[in-house]
Amino acid sequence: MPAGPHPSVEAYAQRRARVATQLQRESGALVLFGGALQTRANDTEFRFRPDSDFHYLTGLEEPGAVMVLRPGPDGGDLRFSLFVRARDRDAEIWSGRRIGPIGAVEQFGASEAFALAELDERLPALLDGCETVYLPIGRWSSLDASLAKAVSSLRRRNRDGRTPPLRYGEAADLIGEDRLVKDAAGLASLRQAIDITVAGHTATMRQAKPGMWEYEIEALLEYEFRRRGSTGPGYGSIVGSGDNATVLHYVDNRDRVRDGDVILIDAGAEWDYFSGDITRSWPVSGKFSGEQRAVYEVVLAANLAGIERAVVGSNIDAIHEACLDVLCEGIAELGLIESLTGPGAAAQIREEGLYKRFYMHRTSHWLGVDVHDAGRYTLGGKPRALAPNHVLTVEPALYIAGDQRDAPERFRGLGVRIEDDVLVRAEGPEILSAAAPKQIDDLEAIIGSG
Ligand code: GLY
Ligand code: MN
Ligand code: MN
């Protein structure tokens, strides 16, 4: 395991204990599947990446595993059962080592562990008498089928004293609410993911040169992630230069970077399956042109105004509104809509939603195990109030596409997004990605510095 913070077995146990407190209220049990290998082509597979909820509660990284969590009656001992692939010397020679049931108990703290082949036989007894079974509804057909068999077996045997569950509940919601408020281990993993992400971004700022290909720059970035022990990017790295930066999810990364281009890199390293999510946009030559600088300054001011609102009791809509205020003023002042400048222009751009030509997405999302992390955004129909240990992004942008005919030509083919990862604390926002340069002087000093 690479050097750096990793949650202890105890930290995973604490997560299970918190979720169990919720389960206990409804006499519930939780059943999760760790995920299966996914075919890439023919008989080759993608590298395994465990299901986020499953890994968050177990730390286990093996395909095919199943977890059953069941609080004891009256808050008694929590039963944490794991089903894993049986040890198999021949299979392990071909496809890698397996933890096996004994390893699941000894290394992952399971109360009991069995071979996967025993799942259908043992599941009814594990669910007997619980009222709600939480599962990722409809996500894994094999898990749905095993549960349906278990429930129907308990129903058939009701006259023998077995008690089938009464309802299914959505596991993603139950666990999502826990994932939203980062615990100490989660925060340590996330800080590490973000620190590595910063190192990747700064490495590209130093090394990228006009004339390189976007994929070369992607490789520089991801080399830095991997050499620091990250499992790799938490989502497809976006490396878009010039007009490509105006495509929100551009992951082709196959054009040549021209002198004079601004490059937009949106990328995040994963650590213990927590992901960073940082965007920086900078001139590959090392100097912004006048137009690029003017647009950059507007987006930077929006980014700073949004971060200022990332405080306890505020909400994601308030952050978005703060960014829109700055962006709409900027669109008017820059004259990005040629027919709309002067007094009242910013208000009209705001009220009529004209900014959406240049800024068509929202400003923030939760960040954690998944780049777009779990946890409800609204409570009772209202935006959820930010609370300590929420982590979110603030990512305002302006995109002036090459074919945006109502924008002055000198601005076209330019995309600027500045995305930071922010921890909400009682003392105010902490910018976890602060070490990634974003002030113009800092950028111009580091770009091309080797
Ligand atoms: N990289 C995806 C996002 O910024 O939301
Ligand atoms: Mn983001
Ligand atoms: Mn991003």
UniProtKB/TrEMBL annotation:
Q: Which GO terms describe its molecular function?
A: manganese ion binding; metalloaminopeptidase activity
Q: Which UniProt keywords apply?
A: Aminopeptidase, Hydrolase, Manganese, Metal-binding, Metalloprotease, Protease
User: Which InterPro entries does the protein's record reference?
Assistant: Aminopep_P_N, Creatin/AminoP/Spt16_N, Creatinase/aminopeptidase-like, Pept_M24, Peptidase_M24B_aminopep-P_CS, X-Pro_dipept-like
Family annotation (CDD domains) = Prolidase
* E.C. code: 3.4.11.9
Task: Please give the GO cellular component terms listed in this UniProt entry.
Answer: cytosol
Q: Which cofactor does it need?
A: Mn(2+)
Task: Name its GO BP terms in alphabetical order.
Answer: proteolysis
Task: Tell me the ranges covered by the Aminopeptidase P N-terminal domain, including all copies.
Answer: 7-144
Q: Which reaction does it catalyse?
A: Release of any N-terminal amino acid, including proline, that is linked to proline, even from a dipeptide or tripeptide
Enzyme superclass (EC): hydrolase
Q: What is this protein called?
A: Xaa-Pro aminopeptidase
Q: Which organism is it from?
A: Enhygromyxa salina
